[in-house]
Amino acid sequence: MKSSSLFFLPAAALLAAVALTSCDTTPRERQEIVRTEARNLDSLADRAAAKLKTAGHRAATFDSTSRARNRQPLDNTSLSTFTAELLGTYASIETLTPTTIEPAYKQFLQQVRARQKQWTQRDWDYATAIYKRLNEQLKAIRLDVKGRDELHIRALQAEFTALETGRDVKDLGQAVKN
């Protein structure tokens, strides 16, 4: 909910209450109605502030946990397994050529799409490491890659980044809610 609408609804209720009762009440009664509604508005603001504070603490905890996980080195055996699963015949990244780099990205993204829903954040760490290695190989052979292949690779890179960011946002959202 937007912060402006958070303020607008109670303020509108206050104005409506004053408008409806102004014809049949005295100024002193209207003054008491305004005080009551202002206290309700203050209570609502206090509850919203408490929820924001809690969400902030949970987001900080999520970030701290994520940073600690990222400092842990990846297991080479698991990385090799992930590479074989995600790249199949293109698993030997350092040997990819200008004609095989685009199919390797395509294979990689097909596997990421298929597996992403059951992945943990650590699984994404492995996928990201493979993605970075693919990007390094692309950088090394880029001048020999056909333009249309490079354009398709850029689209696949954007998709991977979007999928990974979406998962991060989803996990952060769940951490803040819990």
Please mark out the parts with pLDDT under 50 across 5 or more consecutive residues, or reply none. none
Question: What number of structural domains do the residues give?
Answer: 2
Mean pLDDT metric = 85
The helix/strand series, from N terminus to C terminus, equals HHHHHH
Shape: elongated
Count of DSSP H/I helices: 6
Class by SSE composition: mainly alpha
What does this structure look like?
It comes from Hymenobacter persicinus. Keywords: Signal. This is Lipoprotein. The protein is mostly helical. It has two domains: 3-70; 75-177. The protein has six helices and no strands. It has helices spanning 3-21, 27-71, 76-87, 101-115, 121-141, 147-177. α2 packs across α6 (147-177), α3 crosses α5 (121-141) and α4 runs parallel beside α6. 12% of the residues are buried.
Short summary of the structure?
This protein is mainly α.
Name a few traits of the molecule.
single chain; 178 residues; signal; 80% helix; mainly alpha
Question: What is the topology?
Answer:
Layout: H1 3-21, H2 27-71, H3 76-87, H4 101-115, H5 121-141, H6 147-177
